[in-house]
Amino acid sequence: MPDAVLTASPLRTIAAKDIRDALRDRFIVIVTAFLGLAATVALMTGAIALRGDVATYEAAKATLLAIGKAADAIKAPEFYPLRLLRGAIEQIEIIGAAIAILIGYRSAASERGRQTLALIFTRPLSRWQFVAGKALAGLGLLAGGLALVLGGLTLVLQLMSGIGLTADDLLRITIVWAVATAYTACFFLLGFLLTLHMRQPSHALLVAFAVWLLLVLIAPQIGDTLDPDNQVAGGVFRQLNIAKSDQVQIMKGFATYETLRDGIEQASVTKHFERFTFAVLGIKATYAGMPLGPILTEMLGNLVWIFLTALGLGALALAVPINPDRLAKA
Amino acid sequence: MAQARAPAWAIASQSARFVLRERTVALLAVLFVALVLISAWLGWQATATVDRIYLDAAAFLQKTGQPVPANPVLDISPLSLMRNMSVYVALIGALSVIVIGNRLVGLDRKAGVLPLIGIRPFSRATYAAGKIAALAGLILILALISGGVAAVTFLFLPAVVPTAAQWAQLAGFIGISALYMAIFGLVALGAGAAARSETVGLLVPVTLWLTLTFIFPQLTANLNPTAAINPISALAPLPDTPFFHAASQILGPLSLADAYRFASAGLLDYLPPGMGSPAFLPPIADLMLATLFAAGFAWHALTRQSMAQGDYDA
Asked: Which run of H or of E encompasses A194?
């Protein structure tokens, strides 16, 4: 009977078995809970800070009114509920990517550790079906985990914001979920590819983490650090009392520097994910309140970059032949 | 007494040599040194750019008849050029020593030599002391390399002349960086000895590192992860709410990344005036205490490790 199942749909069998394994040893449950905790902490602390801003504004407004001045002398804090997801999105881009590497590592290392890889290849299934089945399972686990995390965050947001989320808000969160799945898939495939092909699985995990460090933390950090406005507390232009329009004029003389800085950031798939999600959720001020259509059109480049990276790594996983020397536990 | 020290020394030197032979360890160490070099360049480049922006802005303000404020670069201490180094110690430095700590025990377990070591005429305490000494030695090498890079950078930049006090501050920064890395290395050493699986031995310190670097700063200061890894943005004022005042004081001592950030900013002269750690424990004392706890954990795990066990379960 198992033979018949394997022959009927080897890809589905491999994927279903991997998902069952991952759920059985509770690893995926633990890491999803960890990501959920990190994202919820980010959402809650963001909300607490916003309440503090609102309280400060109300107190300042009351003082102005008491001394007979107009309340519009001070700017009211803007409240876009989706903006509260900023910290959670950053946790997904950092911790979510690390978890994806671990899922990829375990997906490949489990067969090597149990010495079952050679056995699997004695069955009537091709190498690409094995790899595709594993990748499908990984994608399913990531999509499911992220759906749980983002679903939970949406619920907390709905309860905390007090104004209710609209259908448009829910659509934006759904788009972010789909893109987050593609983004984390890049790191899943990286961990999976390296673990399947490197001599020592533990070395593969370390190399994958080194790449994660460079792409997720270092490259965006270098770009961020080189931003002149991040060099002086409060921003260099604010300290020099220079208006926004004049800032643009001055920065024209630093076009090459800005291109280099942007290039370093662009090299990281993480920055593309951040730019896309921050625009869709209105976290970046210029996109707050803007309809979804124009945002998606403007952010198409980032979207293409993320999906092409995932597809490229997927194609590589399917194309690289599995070395028989790598079939056993190292 | 000399005889009692000799096996620990042999274990330390042999373990350190074996770990250095590992290509992954070498890769991470090289990456760390490269990033320390980059951090020096970043600090210089970013400061030079702000200076040029100021000159352009000053010309623009003069032309439009507006008052020209003071150059913010003049307020910057030369030591602050090295501010990015604190970020790279907290990221790649910590990860490198986690790997070193893990491999120091993992290599013995993977090679199945623990039973062989166990029949030698020395105690498990000697074995533990040797492993901790090896870790300390390797961390010291990493810290000295980063200190050397910083010192050479200052010597090569003619416009930057640190005073004797600033050289001492730089030495202090290298010292607290070594302490911060040691915390993670010791936890990795202990976890590597206590864990039944190789993966768990590596994941425990990595999870601790992720929690301390990205979750605690959010709880204590509403600091988002990307801001937490920017040396300037990470020093934003605390949100003025009772929750954050209480959380930063109570959880502050547990938030080791915050402690390291404040200690680094103080020593490298980029801590904004009037700002300090809101935690009830001073940052450097906090880091010392955490290192002692981590050393206790590593010692406990290493001295209770069964010398009869072979390779990891998985």
From this structure: helix A167-197
